[in-house]
Write a structure and sequence with these properties.
Layout: H1 17-30, H2 37-44, H3 48-60, E1 64-66, E2 72-74, H4 88-106, E3 109-116, E4 119-126, E5 141-143, H5 148-154, H6 159-165, H7 181-194, E6 197-200, E7 207-216, E8 220-230, H8 239-263
Antiparallel strand pairs: 1-2, 3-4, 3-8, 4-5, 6-7, 7-8
Helix pairs in contact: 2-3, 4-8
C-alpha cells in the first residue's frame, strides 16, 4: 500500500544534498589539489558561503586543514597528518641554521617572512655586518606587492586568489610604482618566469631586496627568504650570486621541513 506522504526511496540519482556535497568535497581534498573557498564553490557548484560552511565543518572534524596560504588540504582524519598546517615555530626552527649560513655568505641583512592576507610579516632574520646596512623589521608588516619576498609568494597564488586578496585594489604605498592590480599581475608574470622577487627601492628609498619562496609538501609556499641591502652595496653583476645563495638557503630549509615530517 502506497503512503503519499512518504518520500521515495533514496538511490544514486537522489543523494542527500548537503551530505553529498560534503562527500564530494572530501574526494576533492583527497585528490591532493589545495582548494580555496572560491575554487571549492566553483567545483561543487555552490555559493561561496556554502563552500565556506562545508570547509569549516570538515575542519572541525579533522577532515580538512587550512594552511598559511588560506587553502584547504586533507586533515588528520583522512590520515594526512603530514598535511596539517605548518606552525610558525617549526618554520623558524627549520630556517635558523640556513639563514645563518646565508648571512655568513652574503654579509647583508637576511630575513624570513610569511604572508598575512595581503601583507608580509617579518618573523626572523639577521642584520647585516656593515656600518651601512638595512635594519631588521621583526614583527613588522607591509604590503606584499612591494617586497621581494612578498612578490615571490604572490606569484604562486592563482589569479582567482590574487583577485580575492586585492578585491579592494592595492593599498597605497609611497615608494611602490605598482598602483593597480593589472600592473601587479604583469609584474608577477615576470616574477614567475625568473623564479625570484625583486625590490628596487619599493619598500623604502635606498633599499634593494631579492627574495625566493620556501615550500613545504613539495609545492606549498609557506614563507619567503630575502636578502636586503643598501642600494650602494648592490651591483647588478652580483644578482646571480645572490639568487643562487637564496635558492640554496630555501632548499636547506625545505630539506629540514621534510626531514621533520619523516621523523614525525
Amino acid at each position: 500500500m502506497r503512503n503519499d506522504g512518504a518520500s521515495a526511496p533514496l538511490g544514486p540519482s537522489a543523494p542527500l544534498g548537503s551530505v553529498d556535497k560534503a562527500l564530494q568535497l572530501i574526494l576533492l581534498l583527497r585528490g591532493g589539489q589545495p582548494l580555496s573557498v572560491k575554487e571549492t564553490a566553483q567545483r561543487l557548484d555552490v555559493a561561496p558561503s556554502t563552500a565556506h560552511r562545508l570547509l569549516t565543518a570538515l575542519s572541525r572534524r579533522g577532515f580538512a586543514a587550512q594552511g598559511s596560504d588560506r587553502r584547504y588540504r586533507p586533515g588528520p582524519s583522512l590520515g594526512e597528518t603530514a598535511q596539517e598546517p605548518l606552525t610558525l615555530g617549526r618554520l623558524r626552527e627549520a630556517a635558523r641554521e640556513p639563514l645563518g649560513a646565508l648571512h655568513a655568505q652574503v654579509g647583508e641583512t637576511v630575513q624570513l617572512m610569511i604572508l598575512r592576507g595581503g601583507n608580509i610579516q617579518f618573523v626572523d632574520g639577521i642584520e647585516g655586518v656593515e656600518n651601512l646596512r638595512v635594519g631588521l623589521r621583526l614583527g613588522d608588516q607591509m604590503p606584499a606587492f612591494c617586497s621581494s619576498g612578498g612578490k615571490a609568494l604572490l606569484a604562486e597564488l592563482s589569479p582567482t586568489d590574487l583577485e580575492e586578496l586585492y578585491r579592494g585594489g592595492l593599498p597605497p604605498w609611497p615608494s611602490s610604482p605598482l598602483t593597480t592590480l593589472a600592473q601587479l599581475k604583469r609584474h608577477l608574470t615576470e616574477t614567475r618566469r625568473v623564479g625570484f622577487g625583486t625590490n628596487f627601492e619599493e619598500t623604502e628609498r635606498g633599499v634593494v631586496g631579492l627574495g625566493v619562496c620556501v615550500h613545504a609538501d613539495g609545492a606549498r609556499p609557506v614563507g619567503a627568504i630575502t636578502i636586503a641591502m643598501p642600494r650602494a652595496h648592490y651591483h647588478e653583476d652580483d644578482m646571480g650570486r645572490y639568487v643562487a645563495a637564496l635558492r640554496e638557503c630555501a632548499q636547506a630549509i625545505e630539506d629540514r621541513l621534510r626531514a621533520r615530517r619523516t621523523q614525525g
